[in-house]
Amino acid sequence: MMFGKKPTQVTAGIEHAIATGENYEAEYRIRDADGKQRWVIARGQVEYDVNGNAITFPGVLTDISDRKLAEETLRRSEERYRTVFESIDEGFCVIKMLFDENGRPVDYRFLGVNPMFEKQTGLEPKTIG
After folding, report:
1. Is 98 within 8 Å of 108 (Cβ atoms)?
2. Which CATH architecture has domain 2-70?
3. Angle at 107 between CA 103 and CA 93, to 5 degrees
4. What stretch(es) of the chain map to CATH 2.10.70.100?
5. pLDDT digit string (tens) for the chain, length 129 residues
6. Is this structure's pTM higher than 0.85?
């Protein structure tokens, strides 16, 4: 059983692929035979006969549940990091060291700063990065 994405959206995507000859790809959730929610990616491509009529739509359905779980875990971790980064009352920055051809550090570039760093240094976001 599919849920999350409406069957009509999936059908519309397939119909578009048939009409245009483009590859079909869609990610959606299903419920497996045990009732567990799984994420899948469906990929397919229409095959036509010599008259241009769609005759088959071979494809593959791949379980991507582990990938989706990893993406969600990463998103939550980044959200927690961002919350701490933005709310601490100490100036904090992340920089990238730039090296010369001999491997000696010669400069640096700001990759990220928190609001307190901006306040303490007077550097504006447009000058950072």
Report:
1. yes
2. Ribbon (2.10)
3. 115
4. 2-70
5. 556 566 778 888 889 999 999 999 999 999 989 999 999 999 999 999 999 999 999 999 999 999 999 999 999 999 999 999 899 999 999 999 999 999 999 999 998 899 999 999 988 777 666
6. no
